[in-house]
Design brief:
Elements lengths: L2 H6 L14 H26 L10 H27 L6 H27 L5 H24 L3 H21 L10 H6 L2 H4 L2 H5 L5 H9 L16 H14 L7 H9 L1 H6 L1 H26 L5 H48 L4 H4 L3 H41 L7 H41 L1 H6 L3 H52 L7 H42 L15 E2 L5 E2 L8 E12 L3 E12 L3 E5 L6 H8 L7 E6 L4 E4 L10 H6 L6 H10 L2 H6 L18 H14 L4 E5 L7 H12 L4 H4 L3 E5 L11 E6 L3 E7 L60 H9 L4 H31 L6 H44 L3 H6 L2 H41 L5 H46 L1 H7 L2 H50 L6 H44 L22 E11 L5 E12 L4 E6 L5 H8 L5 E7 L2 E2 L5 H6 L2 E3 L10 H5 L9 H10 L3 H6 L7 H4 L3 H19 L3 E5 L7 H14 L4 E5 L11 E6 L2 E8 L6 E4 L3
Parallel strand pairs: 5-9, 5-10, 7-8, 8-9, 14-19, 14-20, 17-18, 18-19
Antiparallel strand pairs: 1-2, 3-4, 3-6, 10-11, 12-13, 12-15, 15-16, 20-21, 21-22
Length: about 1450
């Protein structure tokens, strides 16, 4: 054996004197080990087919694969013969490797066949195995060619490479057309059907990106993301693990998630570890390359090997990073699907009190995101620790014990990060509280925007919200200034830490053995790859507590005590594990409800129900009535099982009950969908229910009929229409029991009598199926038609019980003598709806789905430059220029120490005094970083973010009334919550990062180009490619981001509607159906979210591959043309190149994130631009200060038309002409939707109208709307309840403020001061006063009295101010109105005739027309109706 062969017989791994491995090492590690692994794995494939089914036809594809496999077997057999006959090298390792290679080739054919026929997607293991071993084969082929005497084997090895490359390509072909199931051909996602490299390099994503470049995305045309993300299946997998979890452990939820997704958690580990390996290889590549450039005798094979190593390292970095990040985000997507469903499922089981806290929506959004972050942090933390540990060990090999000096700044920054993290957490918590306060106040205002505009409060409430915003900004600056310490620690690790370690090596461990220029840059490279994960590790410390707190909040919510149904129900009807009602044939109990000594005690109000005992027979109609706060509504909820009993028992035979609450619950859907709910449409029954509930007439006036959208909370319908729709839903459900809580309170008497007769009369449809009806009412005239009357007194005691049937006989069996409720329609009404429940929640809205025409969305017509200008234009020019200049100097300053080091070691490396310059530049770099951030936070951040909020607020409060009516309040809240928060917390930070990284990237490109003069044009070309890729990517990214927000808002809607209607959902037994809707909404939301993750990973991969190209160009030019450069220049360039991959990726990701986040700026910009404003000016002579001095109102041919949110319109007022003299009190009456409130809207110019309205002879169209409304005292139907003190609620207007004495006197006028003073007085928050609904209306009246007394207005508009008051209070309230507003012109809207006792005349409306006028005879006092007006 020759000396050359003898060196190859060594294990090596490096062959002495060459840039190559020994043959023995290659045969052992690159041949024997991989083939042995395949042989070990193959039995698992055979085991898998025992229970598997054939899913794919063989087709031509399989036969081509097998043909390649046969050729591979033949070549490996030939290989055995060639190695047996070679004289150059013989080894037992070679014999074993050739034999196992032949067996592995045969097994490869088996795996190809199994995976092709039984698997829907190609085998990832096989593709990866063949790919890796192909690189090993290339390495061995190079070795054989270099030996000279192994040429035949080398050629055979090249054939193996070709066959494996062909197999890799074949494995990437999709088998979709060969699927046996036609359904799977259309449902399997493109990613799932793709091969390993297709998935790893995101080739499957390119069609989506091209589609997004050419066309518009929609949820429906997005591709499927695969069945593995189906939320229902994920929840089914999670549920048993959560059920078995140790609930006492703080890690219970995390452990349950890990058990559910154990393989997804595990598969991230291998690529993450591989990525660390490639990272560690970079300094060694730099060292050998710089040495090779400085060595004039570097062989061509060595330089070729370095170029190949460079390609492998940077390609490995790109692929492994893509794999672990992508698999990590797949895990995050699954976790999101599990947690959202778990929270929603728990929401359906909790008590109403637990749900009122509003935690579910926050958990579903913010805390689920926090839980996703903890997964990323978990992987990041341990990998950073490993990378830092290995980096220190590598550093030890270069500079000995000086490597441990890295611990000093590391320890300092670690301690500082912990202390700063606590400070940041406290500051951020305070900031979040202020943000929540501002959003809550804004939500409260948006929920009542129409009332606010009607009352002329836009200006004063704009100032109020701006004050909240200013306070929020002040708190945010504390958190932002705390971030400066994080910048100090990060910059210290980047510049000061290398200076300290280098000083230790230069003056201590390597003082006697000076480092070469190659070693200097290698040490700096090791420090770079060690300091970067250190910064990530420190950054993660500040995030861990917040992320884990999110997990604990979700876990705490999932462990809340669930609602316990206190009713006694037969066991023949059971509830499954999901809370669904399962009906079984069973013998009914004698009574529908049997109550015995039922008592309910409120912690704040004391006894609500006291020892209530009664029975309700099947088929009977029971009515309850009584004064305010007597417990009627609480009793109905107790019958539903929604109230915890403090005593007694309730027995019934079913949980399946149709329910209508006091406050109507209407989903945002079509009228038809709202009525049928989760049931199937039965057209005859549906038509009959529409007629019975008098909805047929309303639908005839709507262009789209029953396909008209109800709007958020039924905002497109009147109060009466909402109540009748809710009643229709209960009737359509055809339940055995109906529980109705004052469903006629907002319906006019005529319509109420008609509905009662059609539904509950002798021939009513409800009577036909012998339904048991329990009704609370404020209309005493209906009591005559009840089978059972229950009268309650204060304290919740049953005072009187009148029964038509003393036993359990069905009331439907009575011989009704034909009495109806229609005849009693115009009789005096009695008690109001039950209001014993104290009001604790203020009006608010939740973010809603922005799917209406007016929603502000991304607008491609607006260029990026205009968005930048719109955002940064609010800051002055000088601060902007100064900030940009400082950022440029800071970016250059980060690299100045290294540039100085290169110059130092080239000129005089022995000059120790030169180190002072290196140290000064290192510290100066830190100072520049802090300076640029501090300047931005002080002079740019507050100005830009506050201006965005001010413009948005001005646009909303100044919007036209028509826009307010058409726009969902929830979509408006999205602007103030999501978009303003995004601008404040994300866009503002990304702006400064983007500017800084722009200059940093340019600096690094310049230094890389300096490594070789020939690299300059190529690097410029790469820079151009990066820009093109970014622009190409942005179009799809923006669209997917918008779709993500749109789809996510549907989840908000689903949660909020479920929480608001949980009583109805449980009583109707709709939990399962609503969960299925949640599954559909969540799966729909997951598509754009996951695909957005994917294209972000595609961008990262593209940037890494671009960096790989740049690396190959630099190394190739440096090694092939060494005379054109120097070792120092190459060292600096390659050091920059190590960071360039991360910098370029970070820059593009920051740029992309900034551009994507600019969607928030763009949406605000589009919203402000497109929102129609009430831009009107005063025409004619100036308006006197005391206008209107008299209060005469003249309507001349006034016609008004409304538009609903779905674009339809209907005439609400038709050609009305009438004059109301000064000082008159006029009533407006008519059925729901007749046009009464529209009359008030025309006076206030809240609706566009034809004709004219004049006040004291002045046309209101010549007066600015806000000024007009401020000169009128308006008490709206909805009222106004602000998230503020009682003092502010009583007088939220601008101008002169009333004294506390005046406010108290106004409250005393309506007899509310005693209650208010007992609950905190004027300084208490309004919600803490806990007014009942009736008291709330009295407070609105008191505010109107106060406003009129302060301003001296002569016109008062009163809309349904007594709708929630008992009838016996009506006269007292009207007396208060007459006294307080004496001398004023008063317009009163009411359904009650009793409200018009003291009016001069009443205008009666029907279908928008002034139908008649009712006057009182001066002689007899009788009312006389005159129709000819």
């Amino acid at each position: 054996m020759s000396s050359l062969a003898e060196s190859d017989a060594l294990f090596g791994p490096q062959k002495p004197g060459t840039f190559d491995f020994t043959v023995k090492f290659e045969h052992a590690m690159l041949w024997l080990v991989p083939t042995g692994l395949l042989i070990v794995v193959t039995p698992f494939y055979f085991k898998g087919i025992l229970k598997a089914q054939r899913q794919v036809r063989p087709g031509r594809l399989l036969w081509i694969k097998l043909a390649c496999g046969v050729a591979l077997v033949v070549i490996q057999a030939t290989n055995i013969a060639l190695w047996r006959n070679t004289e150059y090298f013989r080894s037992e390792v070679t014999v074993a490797a050739t034999a196992t290679s032949l067996v592995a080739s045969i097994f490869t054919m088996a795996i190809i066949a199994i995976t092709h026929i039984y698997w829907l997607h190609p085998s990832a293991f096989l593709s990866l195995f063949i790919s890796i071993t192909m690189f090993f084969d290339i390495t061995m082929a190079r070795t054989y060619f270099l030996r000279g005497r192994l040429g035949a084997i080398a050629i055979l090895q090249i054939c193996v490479v070709i066959l494996k490359a062909l197999l890799i390509v074949l494995e990437e072909f999709s088998k979709r057309t060969l699927y046996l199931s036609e359904m799977l051909q259309s449902t399997v996602s493109a990613e799932a059907a793709a091969g390993f490299w297709n998935r790893s390099l995101f080739v499957w994503l390119n069609p989506l990106l091209f589609f997004g470049w050419r066309k518009k995305f929609s949820i429906d045309n997005l591709p499927s993301i695969g069945d593995e993300f189906a939320s229902e299946k994920l929840h089914d997998r999670f549920s048993p693990h959560w059920a078995k979890a140790d609930k006492s452990s703080r890690l219970a939820l995390l452990l349950a998630l890990m058990r559910t997704l154990k393989w997804q958690f595990a598969q991230v580990l291998l690529p993450r570890l591989s990525y660390i390996g490639f990272i560690i290889a970079q300094p060694f590549l730099l060292l050998r390359t710089v040495q090779a450039v400085g060595d004039e005798h570097t062989s061509r094979s060595s330089s070729g090997g370095l170029i190949g190593a460079c390609g492998i390292i940077y390609f490995g970095l790109a692929v492994t990073r893509t794999l672990f990040e992508h698999w990590g985000y797949r895990l995050v997507t699954s976790v999101r699907g599990i947690l959202v469903v778990a929270i929603y499922d728990k929401t359906q089981r909790l008590t109403v009190d637990a749900l009122e806290a509003g935690a579910a929506v926050t958990l579903m959004s913010t805390d689920v995101e926090g839980t996703e972050n903890i997964i990323s942090l978990a992987y990041e933390s341990w990998s950073c620790i490993i990378q830092v540990a290995i980096g220190i060990w590598v550093l030890y090999t270069f500079i000995d014990y000086a490597c441990f000096l890295i611990i000093l700044p590391t320890l300092a920054t670690f301690i500082g990060s912990i202390l700063t993290g606590k400070k940041i957490s406290r500051a951020r918590a305070i900031w979040n509280q202020e943000t929540e306060e501002r959003v809550a106040v804004t939500s409260n205002v948006l929920a009542q925007l129409r009332s606010i505009k009607s009352m002329g409060l836009a200006g004063s409430l704009s100032t109020y919200i701006e004050e909240k915003r200013q306070r929020e900004t002040e708190m945010s600056l504390k958190e932002r200034y705390s971030l400066l310490w994080i910048i100090v620690f990060g910059a210290t690790n980047f510049t000061v830490t290398p200076a300290i370690v280098f000083a230790g090596a230069y003056f201590w461990t390597r003082a006697d053995n000076p480092m070469s220029i190659a070693e200097v840059f290698a040490v700096l490279a090791v420090l770079a790859i060690s300091s970067s994960p250190l910064m990530d590790l420190f950054r993660s410390i500040t995030l861990w507590s917040g992320a884990f707190a999110s997990v604990l909040r979700i876990q705490k919510f999932l462990l809340l005590e669930e609602r316990v149904d206190a009713r006694n129900i037969p066991t023949s009807e059971e509830v499954d594990v999901n809370g669904e009602i399962e009906l079984h044939d069973a013998t009914k109990r004698e009574f529908a409800f049997d109550l015995s000594n039922v008592s309910v005690i409120s912690p704040t109000a004391g006894p609500v129900l006291s020892e209530v005992t009664f029975r309700i027979p099947w088929g009977s109609h029971a009515m309850m009535w009584g004064p305010i706060n007597c417990g009627k509504s609480t009793l109905l909820k107790a019958l539903l099982g929604e109230v915890e009993l403090n005593g007694g028992s309730i027995s019934t035979s079913t949980r399946d009950i149709a329910y209508c609450s006091q406050e109507t619950w209407i989903e945002n859907c079509t009228i038809q969908q709202a009525i049928i709910g989760t049931l199937t449409l039965v057209q005859p029954l549906y038509n009959e229910v529409l007629t019975a509930c008098a909805l047929d007439v309303d639908l005839q006036n709507m262009p789209n009929g029953d396909q008209t959208k109800t709007g958020s909370g039924g905002c497109n319908l009147s109060g009466g229409q909402r109540q009748r729709l809710s009643l229709a839903r209960a009737a359509f459900a055809r339940k055995e029991i109906m529980i109705l809580d004052d469903v006629f309170s907002s319906v006019d008497p005529e319509t109420a009598g008609l509905i009662y007769s059609r539904l509950f009369g002798p021939q009513g449809i409800v009577r036909r199926w012998n339904c048991t009806v329990i009704l609370t009412t404020n209309r005493l005239e209906l009591l005559d038609f009840a089978d059972q009357k229950l009268q309650f007194t204060k304290g919740g005691r049953l005072q009187e019980q009148n029964k038509s049937q003393p036993d359990g006989t069905s009331a439907a069996e009575k011989n009704d003598e034909g009495s109806t409720a229609e005849g009693a329609a115009n009789e005096p009404s009695g008690d109001t709806k039950d209001e014993e429940t104290e009001e604790a929640e203020l009006p608010s809205v939740q973010p809603k789905e922005d799917n209406d025409a007016s929603s502000p969305t991304d607008d491609d017509s607006i260029g990026d430059l205009s968005v930048y200008k719109y955002f940064l234009g609010s800051a002055a020019l000088l601060p902007l220029v100064t900030w940009v200049f400082l950022a440029m100097m800071a970016a250059l300053g980060e690299w100045m120490p290294v540039i100085f080091l290169r110059i130092w070691f080239v000129k005089d490396p022995s000059s120790q005094t030169a180190f002072a310059g290196y140290g000064i530049l290192s510290v100066g770099s830190v100072a520049l970083n802090v300076l640029v951030a501090a300047f931005y936070f002080t002079y740019i951040f507050p100005r830009t973010t506050n201006e965005m909020h001010r413009r948005l607020l001005t646009a909303v409060l100044g919007a036209t009334a028509e826009f307010v009516n058409e726009t969902d309040s929830g979509s408006l809240l999205n602007r103030f919550s999501q978009d303003i928060s995004l601008i404040t917390k994300r866009v503002s930070l990304l702006a400064t990062q983007f500017v800084f990284l722009t200059f940093t990237t340019l600096v690094e490109i310049g230094m890389i180009s300096a490594g070789s003069p020939y690299a300059v044009p190529i690097m410029l070309f790469i820079l151009l490619v990066l820009s093109v890729i970014q622009v190409f990517y942005l179009r799809s990214s923006r669209q997917l981001r918008h779709l993500e927000l749109e789809a996510s808002s549907s989840l908000f809607t689903r949660f909020t509607e479920t929480i608001e209607g949980i009583h109805h959902i449980r009583s109707f037994g709709w939990q399962k159906s609503f969960r299925q809707r949640l599954f559909a909404d969540l799966d729909r939301s997951q598509k754009p979210t996951y695909l957005l993750y994917c294209i972000q990973r595609w961008l990262t991969l593209t940037m890494d591959l671009t960096s790989m190209v740049a690396s190959l160009i630099l190394v190739s030019l440096s090694l092939r043309l060494p005379q054109s450069t120097s070792d120092a220049a190459v060292g600096l360039a390659m050091l920059s190149l190590i960071g360039f991959s991360s910098t370029a990726t970070g820059y593009i990701k920051t740029w992309t994130a900034f551009e994507t986040s600019l969607g928030a700026i763009r949406r605000v910009m589009v919203f402000v631009r497109d929102t129609p404003q009430e831009q009107d000016t005063l025409s004619g002579p100036p308006l006197p200060q005391n206008w209107p001095a008299n209060g005469q109102i003249a309507f001349n041919a006034v016609s008004a038309t409304y538009k609903t949110s779905d674009g339809t319109s209907y005439k609400a007022l038709d050609n009305m002409t009438v004059t109301i003299q000064a000082g008159q009190k006029v009533g407006l009456m008519g059925r729901t939707g007749g046009g009464k409130s529209t009359v008030l809207s025309t006076v206030l110019r809240m609706v566009e109208f034809a004709g004219s309205v004049s006040i004291d002879g002045r046309n209101t169209k010549d007066i600015p709307r806000e000024l007009l409304r401020s000169r009128i005292t308006t008490i709206t139907q909805e009222g106004l309840r602000l998230k503020a003190t009682l003092r502010f609620n009583m007088y939220p207007f601008g101008g002169i403020r009333p004294t506390d004495y005046q406010i108290i006197e106004a409250l005393r006028t309506v007899d509310l001061w005693t209650h208010a003073s007992a609950h905190g007085g004027l300084d208490a928050q309004y919600a803490a006063i806990r007014f009942s609904t009736a008291q709330k209306q009295l407070m609105f009246l008191a505010r109107g009295i106060l406003h009129q007394s302060i301003t001296g207005n002569k016109i008062v508009l009163v809309d349904e101010v007594t709708s929630s008051l008992a009838l016996d209070m009506e006269k007292d309230v009207q007396d208060i109105v007459d006294r307080a507003f004496r001398g004023c012109t008063i317009l009163v809207v009411s359904h009650r005739r009793e409200s018009f006792i003291s009016t001069d005349f009443v205008l009666r409306f029907r279908a928008g027309k002034l139908y008649s006028m009712i006057r009182r005879r001066s002689s007899t006092g009788e009312w006389v109706e005159v129709q000819d007006i």
